[in-house]
Design goal:
The chain is of the alpha+beta class and 274 residues long. The chain has 2 domains: 133 residues, Invasion associated locus B (IalB) protein (Immunoglobulin-like, Sandwich), CATH 2.60.40; 93 residues, Fusion Protein Consisting Of Minor Coat Protein, Glycine Rich Linker, Tola, And A His Tag, Chain: A, Domain 2, CATH 3.30.1150. 15% of the residues lie in helices and 36% in strands. The chain is built from 4 helices and 16 strands. The protein has a 9-stranded antiparallel β-sheet with strand order 1-2-3-4-7-6-5-8-9. Strands 11, 12, 15 and 16 form a 4-stranded antiparallel β-sheet that branches. Strands 10-13-14 form a 3-stranded antiparallel β-sheet, with no helix packed on it. The radius of gyration is 20 Å and the shape is globular.
């Protein structure tokens, strides 16, 4: 597959920030156009706003399966090193879409905080005709963004996702490429120490299934949630553990050579005892 890095400009999207309960500020001016990254493991779009020396980033990306979207805000400020889980919502003007969010921070190379929401494919469709979106976080100021050109942006990301599916042989109508699937068992790589502290504190349980990209060496460069548990801390830890520890025997093509492929995991169950 040729290099999949491409910058795509969608210049008519602006961003508006407002504190919860405060009057709206002037829209932040974009530093650069939207940049769409055609990577070998994911498709994402991001845009920088505000002060070029310390911009705020808005990042948007679909899952490889196309059943959900992640929306992330990256900005200056402190946040816990280990992700905290908060209740929140995303509103495209048709009412709040309830969504748990993860918030974490880093101090390298500078003090930054990351706020990530996940919503369904059906929910992101509301953005196509929306003039603005508001992110609500429990105990935190709301973040409101003025939107335009969203249909073009989503279309670009959808095309990128289809290309990604071809690259990882998710689309093989005639079943001519993969003679034997990748083999591995992700459930054996988890330990009780992996239970996220956020979920433990709130006595949260659940189960999730994941879509994995498995390369020719049996490594896992990407993990996506196919069936979410509804608890972001559990889903996020699930992907983290699998990517770090799971080992697979790669898929084999009809010529007997290793080939890129996907694996849909069995349910990974998080359960508290005692």
């Amino acid at each position: 597959m040729p290099c999949r890095v491409l910058c795509s400009s969608l210049v008519s999207v602006s961003l508006l920030l407002a504190s919860s309960g405060a009057s709206a500020a002037e829209p932040l001016a974009p530093v650069k156009p939207w940049v769409v990254n055609y990577d070998t493991a994911e498709c994402t779009a991001q845009r920088a706003y505000g002060d070029p020396a310390d911009p705020l980033l808005l990042v948007l990306g679909p899952s490889a399966w196309g059943n959900s979207y992640e929306l992330m805000i990256v900005k200056s400020g402190s946040a816990p090193k280990f992700a905290e889980q908060l209740e929140g919502s995303v509103n495209f003007g048709q009412g709040p879409i309830k969504a748990w969010l993860l918030r974490w921070g880093t101090d390298k190379p500078k003090l930054r905080q990351f706020i990530k929401f996940r919503i369904s494919e059906g929910d992101i469709a509301q953005a196509k005709n929306a003039s603005a979106v508001t992110f609500h976080m429990e105990g935190r100021p709301d973040v409101s963004l003025s939107l335009s050109a969203v249909p073009d942006l989503l279309s670009t990301l959808q095309n990128c996702t289809v290309d990604l599916q071809h690259y990882w042989n998710m689309i093989d109508p005639e079943q001519k490429k993969i003679a034997a699937p990748a083999i591995g068992d992700v459930r054996k790589v988890f330990t009780s120490n992996d239970y996220p502290s956020e979920a433990l504190t709130q006595n949260q349980e659940g189960q999730a299934r994941f879509l994995l990209f498995v390369d020719e060496q049996g490594k896992i460069p990407a993990c996506y949630v196919v069936e979410p548990s509804g608890i972001p801390a559990l889903d996020g830890m699930g992907c983290q553990v699998i990517r770090q520890r799971a080992k697979f025997k790669p898929a084999i093509d009809t010529a007997g050579k290793p080939i890129r492929s996907i694996v849909i995991t069995p349910p990974v169950i998080w359960r508290l005892y005692g």
